[in-house]
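User: Predict the complex with pyridoxal-5'-phosphate.
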Amino acid sequence: MKKELLRKLPKIDELLKEECVVKVLNDGKKALITDTLRETIEEFRNAILKDEIDDFSKEDIMKLFFTNLEKKKQPNLKKVVNATGIVIHTNLGRSILCKDAIYSVIMAAEHYNNLEYNLEEGKRGSRYSHIEKILREITGAEAALVVNNNAAAVMLVLNTLCEDKEAIVSRGQLVEIGGSFRVPEVMKFSRAKLVEVGTTNRTHLYDYESSINEDTGVILKVHTSNFKIMGFTEEVPLEDMIALGKEHSIPVIEDIGSGVLIDLSKYGFTYEPTVQDSIEKGVDVVTFSGDKLLGGPQAGIIVGKKEYIERIKKNQLTRALRIDKMTLAALEATLKCYLDEKEAVESIPTLNMILCDKAELKKKAQGLKRRLKVSPEHFNFTIAEDYSMVGGGSMPTEKIESYVLKVKSSKYSAKQIEEALRGNSIPIVTRVCNDEVIIDMRTLLQGDLEIIVDAFKKMGEI
Ligand SMILES: *Cc1c(COP(=O)(O)O)cnc(C)c1O
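Assistant: Here is the predicted structure with pyridoxal-5'-phosphate placed in the model:
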């Protein structure tokens, strides 16, 4: 039976002569079409071997062939609905951009621009000039520079100020962030020598002090953004580290990670040190991400004292780590929102979602539930209170009260529903908890409700 079926599989040459294939075939497409035919036949072969089908027709093969051909035209990087409630979801692209930033990216992509052209003098300019002034204004720093991401920023700063010298770091701050950013590894690449001081839970000023010698290049503070050490702990206050650095003429560097520019404690969050605080206290160089709490594009922002930033700008590595015009456009537009805090909170999606009112989320949940009445009857939707997360390694202990829709079905398991939603033409990413699918309202954007309703409607058909 199986053998017979396998024998029945058509040859590629044969299929290439099929009328419907000939219609789409031209010289430029021959390789693509041959590949797709081969893959399609392979899929049928596998299905036969696994006893998944007991017969097929040539039409079945052609149907799958055209589906596969269509799929190849679709981009691999595509829009998804984030129903996880994790606002800065690194796997889903972290921050989405504010409207102004989106328009700026389109402008930069569509037209020539003055990226490295000084319009007043009619000669070559610097790509960093567009952004330095506004970064100075917002953070209060003397100078600024932007590179590819925060990992690159830390590496560049250490390489410039601490190559072949010692960088003193507390053991409690030797963190790993997102599985790829490890302070000791970044240090190795930057050719700074790591000097660990203190213990995991406690580090004192004298630990730093006794490690200072003529080989010391910098004192580094890393914001342990994705975990909290509780209980018997002690960290040296930033002010004391700065005073120590001054006394010995050693620059103090801070990797502040998320780089929040607005004090979120006034909105009921635990206080998170802002970039402005660090600069005001006198840290020499501060680095942070562009796409975490700042809510902009992927970037690593370096702000601080002019003498150090100037040295960093001259480092050859800066050229290798530079940002492109679209990032620059998006970042400038995002930063402009920060000139007015109210505007920042209203227009930057990351901030807007984190601060979104619970009552509004409840309304959204009610609206979605109402619209889901069109779904097959075996589905059951309940509105419940739950918690969202900031994500991106920011504010790890902060649970934000939210509203979710819990989905159950008498026909499908939660895992099956989760898979079907993830396999939707516009994938919907949810989480499963206690055999229920959870759809968090906090991270749903305008238009997402429509997509979710459609997906549930379709699920009745499979
Ligand atoms: C996120 C983070 C990084 C890495 O930043 P990227 O922009 O992802 O490269 C480095 N340090 C800290 C403290 C962070 O939180």
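The chain has a mean pLDDT of 93.
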